[in-house]
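Attaching the record inline, Q. Sequence:
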Amino acid sequence: MLAAYIEELGSPDVIRVGELPPPQPGPSDVLVDVEVTAVNQVDTFVRSGAWRTPLSFPFVIGRDLVGTVVSAGPGAPGFRPGDRVWCSSLGHAGRQGAAAEQAVVPYDRLYRLPDGVGAVDAVALAHPASTACLALFTHGRLRAGETVVILGAAGNVGAAAVVTAAQAGARVVAVASARDADHCRSLGARQVVDYRDPEAARRIREAAPDGVDLYLDTSGRNDLETALGLLAPRGRVVVMAGLRTRPVLPAGELYTHDRSVHGFAISGARTDELAGAAAHVARLTADGLLRPRAVDVLPLGEAAEAHARLESGGVRGKLVLRVSG
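Structure, as predicted:
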């Protein structure tokens, strides 16, 4: 089968596209014909070695896929040949990746594609929307009526978080570029603060005079000094990006107001947590509430270029690799 893979850790140049033996599913696995796979920042971390995880070479890259079931083992209930499916958790912790003509997916990491949702849209949303859902509810413990500040609100994860939080009945203050203000409001944000504004913290405070219940930084800046000062009593910060940042943690702001800082990466999510997020994402996607803002579809043969583009920081939207179809 044709696959995008690496035989060593390194720069995007180590990615090869060529023939590999087809994967062999186990009794609780599902064999999937892959149509599309997405390119995520974490994929570049795994490929480079910045994110250490067990893998065997040759290693097929990529986490997310949309495709069609070829066969399901006796221990993989609920899936039949021809089912349209998606997954967001391959290519990590010993699992081979998704950027190949076929992939093996453990049955408890595979979900049905909602009717009427296109493959490209679904795979573009798989990782960011699942991440947003877990950050908001599993780790952020967001409840209806609370105020959530979302930094990087116009990005892939941030935009999904705005929609998801607003649909859950939260009051969303989006922090983004001024040019993205109207877009953030269209997603459900009540107020938008320009992240370039030197008075941004004051404007957030004005928008949430009783304090912020949840502060979600998808941008990876991780300014905890500012964040903790904006929180309401028992407010939470979720740190979910910025692999190499080293923020200052003001202990007084933390413990005297019963505030907390939580670290979260979707790579550590349990299968039941991922399944819960997938169900939430499927509902919002089927209802037309979650849509990717911009998607650039490339052939599988341009996998190395896609990784290089993502690492350069110039990608606005989502990169998707088309494998078949």
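DSSP finds nine helices and 16 strands in the chain. Residues 215 and 266 are 18 Å apart (CA to CA).

More tomorrow.
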